[in-house]
Amino acid sequence: MELNRVLPELRGPMKRAQVSMPRWLVRIAVRLLIVPRSEAVRVTRARAGAATVRVYVPTGARGGGGLLWIHGGGLLFGDAKQDEALCLSTAERLGLVVVSANYRFAPEHPFPAAHDDVRGAWHWFLDHADELGVDPRRIVVGGESAGGGLAAALVQRLHDDGGVQPCGQWLFAPMLDDRTAARRELDAERHFVWDNEANREGWSGYLGTSPGADAVPAYAAPARRTDLSGLPPAFLTWGDIELFAAEDRAYAEALRGAGVPVTTDVVEGAPHGFENWARTTPAARALLDRAQEWLRAATA
Q1: Cβ(228)–Cβ(256) under 8 Å?
Q2: Backbone angles phi, psi at 4, to 5 degrees
Q3: How far is CA 243 from CA 196, 217, 218, in A?
Q4: Based on CB atoms within 10 Å of each CB, which residue in 8, 25, 89, 143 is the most buried?
Q5: CB of 175 closer than 8 Å to CB of 202
Q6: In this structure, are residues 291 and 170 in contact, taking their beta carbons and an 8 Å threshold?
Q7: Spatial distance between the Cα atoms of 271 and 273, rounded to a whole number of angstroms
């Protein structure tokens, strides 16, 4: 892909974000991240089944709503700490309690490990809603990239399980469809930050087999679900030049076709995950403003 397709303000941050490291080193580096701090938000950790959660509680006024957030990392790596800035900003600005979930990684822990972990984080949130001052009916499930895909699948699972439902889904460039990874012609595109070869590694590890088979287990690849009726309102955003653009657009259209209210926000010239690794740029700040306003309304 040609660099001139990237929004100029994102080109410098993108080059820094594309440093290549072995997966084991990425996993260590993410755990050692120096995270921002805020006097307006208290941050704690808790055990939620097989995984842990980071809990962000505003020290000032709280609105009674909540966000279950799921980090990205291609299903292969990552940590809740990598989204500290987003979680702090959301908790402080909106008065929401944010629970950010960790989960087990492929290929050591294939599906349904990560799915079960984030489902466990949802139930931990419900179990502790009273003490956190959260109305269980006003919790949105959200995530970025692989976390966005896990969030979408969790929303589907909760719909089928019954009981308390999320009031919305907040999806940033979600990784939804293993069939994208099976399209070898996309390898030549060399998408910035996350390309199809990396995508195939992530999906292969998660599914335990080559992506693109005729069928996959329920909730493994949320774009495979044919009946999306009854799911909560959705906010979906993606960059127009990223690998997931087509599958994210298709999922948004499928949700609309099933009668689900959908807000889409497509950022021109934005590679995958720019709202994270280029979060101080005008484009990322503007996107987060728009996304948080949607979230404010969804949890009101």
Answers
A1: no
A2: -70, -5
A3: 7, 23, 23
A4: 143
A5: yes
A6: yes
A7: 6
C-alpha to C-alpha distance for 80 and 95, rounded to whole angstroms: 19
Q: Which residues of 3-31 are buried (b: 16+ CB within 10 A; e: fewer)?
A: eeebbebbeebbeebeeeeeeeebbeebe
Sheet with 41-48, strands from edge to edge, namely: 41-48, 51-58, 97-101, 66-70, 139-144, 168-172, 234-239, 262-267
Q: What is the DSSP letter of 294?
A: H
Neighbours of 147 (CB within 10 A): 30
Q: Name the 3-class secondary structure at 41.
A: strand
**CATH assignment of 3-298, among 3.30.565.10, 3.40.50.1820, 3.30.250.10, 3.40.50.300:** 3.40.50.1820
- DSSP state at residue 82: G
Amino acid in the structure at residue 67: L
Task: Report the alpha-carbon distance of residue 97 to residue 292 in Å, rounded.
Answer: 14
Q: Print pLDDT tens along the chain (300 aa).
A: 999 999 999 999 998 776 565 665 566 566 656 667 788 999 999 999 888 999 999 998 889 999 999 999 999 999 999 999 999 999 999 999 999 999 999 999 999 999 999 999 999 999 999 999 999 999 999 999 999 999 999 999 999 999 999 999 999 999 999 999 999 999 999 999 999 999 999 999 999 999 999 999 999 999 999 999 999 999 999 999 999 999 999 999 999 999 999 999 999 999 999 999 999 999 999 999 999 999 999 999
d(CA 269, CA 249): 16
Query: Global pTM?
Result: 0.95
- HSE, side-chain direction, 13 A CA sphere, residue 26: 17
- Return the closest-CA partner of residue 48 out of 108, 103, 129: 103
DSSP-derived 3-state class of residue 197: helix
Query: What are the residue ranges of helices labelled H in 128-174?
Result: 129-132, 146-161
Tokens 């966000």 correspond to 67
